[in-house]
Amino acid sequence: MSSANDLSYVHPSPTSPWGTYLSQVDRVRPYLGKLDRWVETLKRPKRALIVDVPIELDDGSIAHFEGYRVQHNLSRGPGKGGVRFHPDVTLEEVMALSAWMTVKCAAVNLPYGGAKGGIRVDPKKLSITELEKVTRRYTSEIGLIIGPHADIPAPDVNTNGQIMAWMMDTYSMNTGATATGVVTGKPIHLGGSLGRVKATGRGVFVTGQEAARRIGLKLEGARVAVQGFGNVGSVAAELFAKAGAKVVAVQDHTGTLVNDRGFDVAQLSEFSRTNGGIAGFKEGAMVSDDAFWDVPCDVLVPAALEGQLTAERARRVTARLVLEGANGPTVPEADDILAERGVLVVPDVICNAGGVTVSYFEWVQDFSSFFWTEDEINQRLDRIMVGAFENIWEKSARHAISLRTATFAVACERILIAREERGLYP
Ligand code: NAD
Predict the structure, then answer these.
(1) pLDDT number for residue 6
(2) Is 304 in the pocket of ligand 1 (CB under 6 A)?
(3) Which residues lie closer than 8 Å to 93 by C-beta, 6 or more apart?
(4) pLDDT for 56-77, tens place per residue?
(5) Is 155 in the pocket of ligand 1 (CB under 6 A)?
(6) Do 326 and 228 meet the contact criterion of CB atoms below 8 Å apart?
(7) What is the Cα 394 distance to its own chain's centre?
(8) What gap in Å lies between CA 302 and CA 29, rounded to an integer?
């Protein structure tokens, strides 16, 4: 029985985030064996909370924002997943992002389920006071279902350490005790972990390195194009540049820049931080956003938002290797086109798992109140990412399936075994 569209509260299309996720689950079903009996578990979130977030704006008026927290699956442990502040956030998007967290945590074998949150708001239009109010009221509203042993939020698009600090403080005030383990991605002196800020970009680079080696692509001198120059994209770009690659194209919400000689990534990052985007950086030429997809490159890193690699763009990709820094950047039809064209895609559910892995380290450190050095963090991170990649590569080779389906196969098996072993209550 397929339940692709029988949830009354969402109406996915084949290319929308939840539609994309459902089709990825369908593709893994032939590899689930007897566990297929439990597959419906993956196709419906355990719990979805919609909250109203009212605040008083600086001008004295009242504004209402819609907030969400979705716990997709908690079979393997507490929910884990970021919080996104973006004007386009919808329940359907948060559902898909929460489901990808379930798969991701299982793919790297972290003892977590999957969750995600978001507020439909453009944080760039809020003052710092308004941003703090939105964050605190949202945290208070979702306080019903989050907690250090229940569901642990983290940063995602447009959220950062400061927002995590406000979330931690609000939750702690409401429960009457400082609970550092309720969120990860916190500032260092509030129980944050060294290495967390760069962890996702680092994981993209480490899995990229593993994949490149296996297809005989030398990173030294390789041409890299990066879409999204935030936390994930800028760090991945910096590490590729350090490894001798040339970052020749960068796109963010302010525009697209190309530089055939390769950008000085540290300088571009500094510029983007100070100016709120890459537009205006002098060491490169601005081109149209659409031209980004035609820039000749060896490695393409989509690190912005979902659904960016459409079928039409997949036909134009020049890279041999696509590293999904973003969640859900490739629609299923584009996946097939890239495979036919011999382009290797390292899927989000393993490629960008570095962030949640160091979030896990942060959570563990918070409970023991004993903190590791950055070297220890990076070594442990690299070991987990390389080990998980090897396992998935081997599964993909054995069954002649894409890395995405192989990652889903490894992860869904772990999730559904846990589901089966726990049994249905009552
Ligand atoms: P961020 O807010 O730091 O950066 C987002 C970047 O995307 C910015 O450079 C922004 O300008 C750019 N962008 C936004 N809209 C765009 C558009 N239409 N076209 C081109 N660029 C656009 O966010 P982030 O934390 O770097 O997250 C980026 C992606 O990585 C998201 O899909 C997120 O879910 C995923 N991710 C993030 C983490 C993490 O630890 N931060 C972990 C795993 C996955």
Answers:
(1) 84
(2) yes
(3) 17, 18, 118, 306
(4) 999 999 999 999 999 999 999 9
(5) yes
(6) yes
(7) 24
(8) 27
Q: Which two tokens stand for residue 138?
A: 């949202």
Ranges of CATH 3.40.50.10860 domains, the chain: 3-179
pLDDT of 217 strictly over 70: yes
Q: What is the DSSP letter of 197?
A: H
Q: Which segments of the chain belong to CATH 3.40.50.720?
A: 199-351
Position in ligand 1 atom list of the atom nearest CA 154: 40
Kindly tell me the number of DSSP H helices and DSSP E strands found in the chain.
13, 12
Expressed in angstroms and rounded, the spacing between residue 304 Cα and the centre of ligand 1 is 4
Ligand 1 lined by 355 (C-beta under 6 Å): yes
For ligand 1, say whether the CB of 325 is within 6 Å of any of its atoms: yes
Mean per-residue pLDDT for 147-167?
A: 97
Fold of 199-351: Rossmann fold (3.40.50)
In angstroms, what is the span from residue 50 Cα to ligand 1's centroid? 23
Most ligand 1 atoms within 8 A of CB, residue of 86, 119, 162, 200 to mutate: 200
From CA 73, how far away is CA 23, in angstroms rounded? Answer: 18
> Does domain 3-179 fall into CATH 3.40.30.10?
no
426 preceded by cis ω (within 30°)? yes
C-alpha dist (Å) from residue 46 to 7, 127, 163: 12, 35, 26
CA–CA separation, 86 vs 108, rounded Å? 28
pLDDT value of position 182: 98
Could you tell me which residues come within 8 angstroms of residue 216 by beta carbon, excluding any fewer than 6 positions away?
none
Helix (H, G, I), strand (E, B) or coil at 175: helix
DSSP track, 230-259: SHHHHHHHHHHHHTT-EEEEEEETTEEEE-
Strand bridging mode 62-73 / 47-56: antiparallel
